[in-house]
Amino acid sequence: MSDIDDLLDDIEANLRKKSNLKQAEKKKNVAHSDDLINDLDVFDLKLDNQQRLPKNKNPLVSSSTTTNNEQKLKCFPIYLSGTSTEQNKEEHTCNNLRCIQCDFDVLRFNDSEWTSNVDYLFFRNHMPDKKALKQRLRTKQGCTAYACQCQWININSLTNITAQYKELKWSCMKH
């Protein structure tokens, strides 16, 4: 009987070793995947910064071409503004944003600001229902309230959110 017990113990020990090796390999692969993703993010930023713009185009907007030779423009850096911003600067603000964290469009409410009692759960529960969202807005001339399902902000003047609000994961979806 002891020979069988010894054999079973050996098999069990070998299975544990293999299981531990597989777990260690998975952790290594996950870490390697995270490094690759970070490298791609840095590479994408470098490409965005190095793109050449066509002549007579807004210097705040980068461009790309679709398969139909139809020109699509992508804002970088991203600027937002309140409604009191001068008209000639208004054309530089992006109005086609999407959050890459929650995958929702960013909604814009002119001449409004979010009340102090808004929180993450409010937006999770009410996005993208504009009627429900307006319950937590108050009128403020010249201000614009922006929100997706996970983040929100009030903007009064022309603001580079790429530089000043790095926690916002909003991306231009091209125009």
From TrEMBL:
Alphabetically ordered keywords of this record: Cytoplasm
Top-level taxon in the UniProt lineage: Eukaryota
Entry keyword ATP-binding: no
Name listed for the protein in its UniProt record: Cilia- and flagella-associated protein 418
Coiled-coil residue spans: none
Role according to the record: May be involved in photoreceptor outer segment disk morphogenesis.
Location of this chain's protein in the cell: Cytoplasm; Photoreceptor inner segment
A cellular component annotation (GO) from this entry: photoreceptor inner segment
Major place of residence: cytoplasm
Source species: Didymodactylos carnosus
